Give the backbone structure.
Amino acid sequence: MSSATITSEQGAPATPERTGQPAAATGDRLFRLLTGGAAWLVLILLLGAAGSMAWGGREAFQTFGWSFITSKDWDAVGHQFGALVPIYGTIVSSVIAMIVAVPISFGIATFLAEVAPRWMRGPIGMAIELLAAVPSIIYGMWGLFVFAPFMSEHVEPWVTEHWATLPVIGVLFDGPPIGIGMLTAGIILGIMTIPFISSVMRDVFQAIPPALRESAFALGATPWEVVCKVTLPHTRSAVMGAIFLGLGRALGETMAVTFVLGNAHDFSLSLLMPGNSIAAAIANEFTEADSPIYHSALIALGFLLFVVTFIVLAIAKFMLLRIERKGR
């Protein structure tokens, strides 16, 4: 037996496990440093972007105060600016988009995960994912040249005739059928967000352990009962996350909305009338800002979009937490 082997057996030189422990600890520390740094970097960048917009819009906030948020005046010549119309347009068009997109996305995801034959799931799923990659300006051009004329000729006249006379909600559908407006923009946004929401929902539904579905079917449950009592309760958080993803896309969408919203700073409760959104106003008017207060007002709009998005998503997250607590 050689002296080197004896030394090894007596433990003088470190064993391979002992030599690997410091290296593993260093690797763990480096891994934590890199992943933690990436997470904090995103948060710092977001706070930096919000802070820079707030600083850029300080002149507008100092000049108009709270009336910048509550006023519907927007006079570039007279240097009077209020953000009520763009804020209202952003929220209303996003709500219409979710009303359109969520049921359709749920139907698509349920069909692909529970009903469709296996050979059909791949092509349809791939087509939906490709729709998510279509640039928003394509949706905007299609909306302006194809969908808006269809709405003005076939949908809005019927809506005005039958729904404008309804009590309370009739004012939402009373207006001339000109095609472009809040309703058309909301539907276009809904169509744009369907691929995002449905793709995430489908992946979540397909990730459910097969034993859960098989157990439910073994107990005599129908496919609809499996979806309602097994799939949705098991994936509630992920489904809400998919809806948040679509809502965030709708709140910040710019080009498609710019084409079909009408870009008018006129406040109207009617969904058939032209309006404006924060993103569309910034995109349309930033190059035309010919004074410091005009420029500051547009940057302040960007800060308000950040705030509105944060508040809406925070409320949605709070509602999700309450649903989860009730479900326990």
